[in-house]
């Protein structure tokens, strides 16, 4: 009898839908403003770049031995607004649209009638084709949100410090920076955005712990001013007795999560094209807990280290993928010419002087 009760309790722990739904902020763009500059080197001509200290990532670990220490010290990126990207589909992609479709931060006026007045939000410009063509644009972070990056503070140059006792067991991108842990069934998703009467459609892109990306339709942007768009799960079952309860081993499955993978804006061929401007404040999620927090008689992870080893392997894989991509961009940026005009030559100067003398 006692053994049966133990197994029943274990099943209830993993039935993440027993009235324990909660609301969390997946990403809050008011938190992503720049507050540090990348390290400056006196003997290098590499420019400093503004970054967000909480989300700064060092991708020099993926760089080869040909880079100097000065160059590696500047190989950092973060979720700072200007680092975000616009990815256009083939129907919308051309030289002009790629060049003009950008992401930056927008300052909300101090006297604005919103709770986040005076803060910065994510601002997007997309140049859609003006001819009849279905087109879409993805607004994505500069790298995939790292689900297993431990929380560690950064100094004024973006260098990660040793983890403190208060930071142990926490993750860098939690609490509004793109990651929510312990997510079971998603009940609702909301986006606070500013509409400008564009007829386009908005989607939120989320990725789970299995690496599966899902697209959630938030609605049309055909409105003016700030509005909270909400997606409600049509298959969400509120009655526990009618739910299909699946039981998984408590250890070492790990804790399910979702992370923010970007927005998608779609333009129908019959709608007006040209420039699209959008502003986004945050994304929130209401969800069931996947696992109830409960004290165990034995510390399984301390004994077996299964989850720790698996998370470390995933983190290294994610870092190598994002690091290689960023290093290639760093190389391309260094190869780009920074001159905007031709430099005057002695011949041009002498020709000008000769013309003046003839007059």
Structure, described:
- The chain is of the alpha+beta class.
- Helices cover 20% and strands 30% of the residues.
- It has 6 helices and 16 strands.
- A hairpin with a 4-residue loop joins strand 12 and strand 13.
- It is globular.
By DSSP (H or I, 4+ residues per run), the number of helices equals 6
**What structural class do you assign from the helix and strand content?**
alpha+beta
By DSSP, the count of extended strands is 16
Helix fraction, binned, reads 10-25%
Provide the residue-averaged pLDDT: 82
**Bulk shape:** globular
Distance between the termini: 113 Å
Strand content: 25-35%
Low-confidence stretches: 1-19
The radius of gyration computed from the alpha-carbon positions, rounded to a whole number of angstroms, is 25 Å
Describe the biggest sheet? 6 strands, antiparallel
- SSE string, helices as H and strands as E: HEEEEHEEHEEEEEEEEEEHHH
Defining key terms:
359 residues, alpha+beta, six-stranded antiparallel beta sheet, 6 helices, 16 strands, 20% helix, 30% strand, disordered N terminus
Describe the structure in brief.
The protein is 20% helix and 30% strand. It is an alpha+beta fold and 359 residues long.
List the helices and strands and how they pair.
Blueprint: H1 2-14, E1 22-28, E2 36-37, E3 50-51, E4 57-58, H2 69-73, E5 76-77, E6 85-88, H3 95-100, E7 102-107, E8 120-128, E9 135-140, E10 179-181, E11 183-196, E12 201-208, E13 213-220, E14 224-232, E15 257-267, E16 274-289, H4 300-304, H5 306-335, H6 346-358
Antiparallel strand pairs: 1-16, 2-3, 4-5, 6-9, 7-8, 8-16, 9-15, 10-15, 11-14, 11-16, 12-13, 12-15
